[in-house]
Design a protein that fits this description.
Elements lengths: L13 H13 L5 H11 L1 E2 L11 E2 L4 H7 L5 E6 L5 H15 L4 E6 L2 H16 L3 H8 L6 E3 L3 E3 L6 E6 L11 E7 L8 H11 E11 L7 H11 L7 E5 L20 H10 L3 H11 L5 H7 L13 E2 L3 H7 L14 E3 L9 E6 L10 E7 L4 E7 L3 H9 L5 E5 L4 H9 L5 E2 L13 H16 L8 H8 L2 E2 L5 E2 L2 E2 L4 E2 L3 H13 L13 E6 L13 E6 L19 E2 L6 E2 L10 H7 L14
Parallel strand pairs: 3-9, 3-10, 4-7, 4-8, 8-9, 13-16, 16-17
Antiparallel strand pairs: 1-2, 5-6, 6-7, 11-18, 12-15, 13-14, 14-15, 18-19, 20-21, 22-23, 24-25
Length: about 600
Amino acid sequence: MSNPRGSKAAGGNPVLDTIFQKLQESKTAPDATTLRQYMERYLMIIPKGQGGSRRPIKLRLNAIQDQLNRMPYDRLYILKARQVGSSTYQTARLFAKAALIPGTNALILAHTDGSARTLFRMIQTYFNQLPTYEKRRLNGAAGEPFISNMREIVFAANGSRIACQTAGSKAGARGSTLTDILLSEVAFYGEWAGDVVASLEGALVPGGSVVLETTPEPAGTWAYEMWRRCLEDTDHAPYHPIFFPWWESEEYTEDPAGGNEPYSTEEWNGIQQHGWTKEQIAWRRKRRAQFADPRLFDQEYPNDPLSAWVSRGRTVFPMEHVTTAYGGSPPVTVDNQSGYRQYVPPDPFQNYVIGVDPAEGVQGGDYTAIQIFSESGEQCAERLDYIPIHQLAEWLLQLPYHGVVAIERNNHGHALIELLIGRGLKLELDKDNRFGLLANRQSKARWISRAMHGFHQRQFRLRSYRLYQQLVQYVYDDQGRAGGPEKGGDKVLAHDDAVSAFLLVAQTLVDDRGGVKESPFTVHVTTPKKRRPSTDAQAESFFTATYTPDSEGLYLPPDTDFRLPAGVCSTCYQPLVRGRPNTAYSLTHLLTHAICPACGQPLDSAG
């Protein structure tokens, strides 16, 4: 776009002459270099008040602002620590665009009226500190713009305008054509967040820019769900996510004397992973001590893009243990089945535990969650998807990871178990000797206890970001019930399906009584002490032997003399065989629990 007044209105200023020449030649919006030239040449800011001078100084982009200026995206979602300079840069960028591109219509939306006033004062400072010739270029001979009591500034000469409003008012969202939108502290918009953003998106011109920026708020809000969505699928997300932790700010330093050893686990992790200096550690210690609840410090000055979203309520799993177990995701293999991710390829010589939390498989309902862990506690694969029960059964039968399948048998679990019985899978038994694990408040507390013990013993190695984010948001409510955080106003639920499937795995793998839990793949069989001819098999003396099968399946020791009654089960009339059980069934459960493989009744009821 060109400047209708040309360089004459610029007063022959060489910087403006260069800028307008570039715009005339490219016929496009100003690039990063042009914007930076304008901002650093003409815009002034009020320095932060810490006992120093409050006189305006020239804007000089810091490291974070420079990164933002070089971002090639028109749609950004910025999660940040407090006061790293993001809001200053975004308001300066909008002012520069309004000054350089005639007809720019920018809207800045804040979460409170006080924040809207603060942002608008920044806009006014930018204009008030402009040179006189630049003011006249924007507004004619008078040099003063039109400023309404609605916190709106309009440049008379080029028709550009910038408005600062609050999210609750929804003013300017409808009936306007917007070229640029800045949503400041979007996580604090409350229950109307989704509606406000959708309304503004409808008013945006094609190719317009949208920037969401915020510090974290408790999980379960629209902002949290959108952030999680952007992280999980950056290629198709509506906004490009970018995270600025506190240590990227050049201002967060103190006297290095306060950053000496000994270091906490978090500080060692910061030193090794992020290169924290003594000055930064000293600042962190001093600032963190000012918060009664350390979680509030993590919310204001986050270390990572997920744990920053502090959960409402009391978290079930300690953050430090979950973070230690999650060492970052290695490259994943994704097939054409949505929601399935493989982290470690299947090993034919390895045993696995598959936790299954089935749902009805209807779009918009709960996910069916499947977590696959090796016997050593390493997460190998997962699936979170809408899967009808009959398709889920066939998928499990074809799964290349072989081992024990622990199914939650509430509701849809009964139908899944019925489809899988007698088809060769090793189904986990509950304490009542029935297939599947019954989930209630008592059993869930037991599973959580085992999972906690596993985390304390560092038994788990997490690979899934989805599982990690659900674990750190898993909380107790006021009644002591565990689950994902919920924000009723937005009708958004932070799902806990992955955690439910993980707890089934923990119940199978972990012994929370202090000992080493026996492998779920171990088979107990009875063998005769001494082989001798006998006409009365019941007179033989037996003792218990333990046998762990190889990867090809479960086999009895060669000297086993284990026999089942002949005939059929008197309860379900399932045919039984004399001698070795039918190999189509799980020998683990037949030999350990001595029950009918079809109905779960004791085998002594067979006729």
